[in-house]
Specification:
This protein is of the alpha/beta class. It is built from nine helices and six strands, in the order E-H-E-H-E-H-H-E-H-H-E-E-H-H-H. The longest helix has 36 residues, at 195-230.
Length: 231
């Protein structure tokens, strides 16, 4: 699966959250990362070709006054032309996945109904959801990062895993999908550990494999019980 990450931020170098997310991307993967505002001239043909080639498209940005930065809107107006998205009735983006990674300076509870912000993130991002609907794309649940500057180290480590899963894990986000993702990624993670820590990593890998077998055995047992109940 190829994932295209389109980052919109007017001051990327000054953003600790965006720099953290970029640094957390694994090497040698099918992830294409692009900063929209760094392009002095937007090559529309190139941008549209990238969209055609991607399986999952991620729009990543900070929330500015309940909307994406102006750079992303300008990119939309230039690249997502009516003819390209749906005008020729070919829908080149149909069935591709569109996800949003959004950072906010307010806590999650502020975006609940009755919260301090007065609207939910889903409401703020509704225009992008409408674009996905018009293009016949699959709209993914929003990946929100609230108050990054206040995250503790364990929370940042969890964020790395969750972010990588959001970019590359199969949907829907089920227990089976998570198990499959970890089984695929764990060997590479262990290889990146210092030599003195790799033995511990292998033990974790073996324990994970055993737990997978136990879960599969339990699922088989529950399936048999259900079949008997149905009889």
């Amino acid at each position: 699966m190829t994932t295209l990450v389109l980052v919109s931020h007017p001051h990327l170098a000054d953003s600790t959250s965006q720099q953290f997310l970029k640094a957390s991307l694994p090497e040698n993967t099918d992830i294409v990362w692009e900063h929209i505002e760094s392009q002095t001239h937007l090559d529309v043909a190139k941008e549209q070709a990238q969209l055609r080639q991607a399986d999952r498209i991620i729009l990543q940005f900070p929330l500015y006054w309940y909307a994406a930065p102006a750079g992303l809107k300008a990119w939309e107006d230039t690249v997502l032309t009516r003819t390209f998205v749906y005008g020729d009735h070919r829908y080149p983006l149909a069935d591709k996945e569109l996800g949003i990674v959004v950072t906010t300076g307010m806590p999650a509870k502020a975006f609940q109904r009755g919260g301090a912000e007065g609207l939910t993130l889903d409401a703020a991002l509704a225009p992008l959801a409408a674009v996905a609907h018009r293009a016949k794309m699959t709209w993914l649940p929003t990946f929100a990062i609230h108050q990054f500057a206040y995250l503790e180290e364990p929370e940042k480590l969890q964020l790395v895993v969750d972010y990588q899963r959001y970019l590359t894990q199969g949907q829907p986000d089920s227990l089976q999908a998570r198990q499959t993702w970890f089984a695929q990624k764990l060997p590479g993670m262990i290889d990146q550990l210092p030599p003195e820590q790799q033995a511990t990593g292998r033990l974790i890998e073996a324990e994970f494999a055993q737990q997978q077998d136990d879960i599969e055995a339990l699922a088989d047992t529950l399936s048999l019980i259900k079949e008997r109940d149905d009889d």
